[in-house]
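lol so apparently i was supposed to do this last week
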Amino acid sequence: MPQIVDLTGRVALVTGGSRGIGAAIVQALAEAGANVAINYRSAAADADAAAAKVRAIGRKALAVAADVSEASAVAKLVRTVQDGLGPIDILVNNAGIALIRGIDDLTEADFDRTIAVNLKSVFLCTQAVLPHMREQHWGRIVNISSGAARGAGGVGLHYNASKAGMEGMTRGYAARLVKEGITVNAVAPSLIETDMVRAGVAATPSRIPLGRFGTPEEVAMVVMMLVGNAYMTGQTVALSGGMAFS
Ligand code: NAP
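anyway here it is w/ NAP bound
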């Protein structure tokens, strides 16, 4: 990928960075010079593989298991990254789940879990990294939303709500942090070929005007554009193969 930003000496944390979109973002950040912490929930082998790819190009990597929906786990995650790589300059809130449910089979537990993993985690992780970013007057936060924040999507209304909330929080933080050198933006992909989409019953390339799924690397390119741009904040950049225009 052509480099649009030099992140030499920066430390990045990518939640859910072990596979799919997160793993591509980890690799792009490392290629731009950053040392990268790779958070995951339970699949250690994927996280170790992503870390090995980062080390192979000469950057430092740290794989850290933590459920980002839990405050105590997030506090420990951020401490572990600080001790291992240094304070976090770049946060990518990417961890997410997509439980496919209709109106009638959506349970309270599904709703609460989705909001906790996809939305509350953004609050917890952002709050935990902000003190250092504010102190140094520089920080980049990118939230991985979804076309489902605005459209129906194929997952369910709980997922719509979690991603719409994430975009609201993106604007809320951006407005409050704009004078402190910290940008907060979101990327809203639709139908990127990962385990999440492969497991989704409603996801076929025929729904996409471009005629194919997007790739994790295409999402990572947008993340890198946002990390490299000091003037852009509070925005959501959509990429959907022509399915939606914003
Ligand atoms: P994926 O392939 O299912 O990977 C999900 C990642 O998140 C894994 O690393 C997983 O770790 C981690 N994770 C899940 N729950 C977690 C938790 N509670 N704490 C910490 N880590 C957790 O997903 P993806 O398709 O790459 O999606 C990444 C993000 O993009 C999600 O926020 C998703 O909503 C969003 N998105 C995806 C698409 C798409 O078409 N794929 C479209 C729009 C938006 P383990 O492997 O250990 O479980």
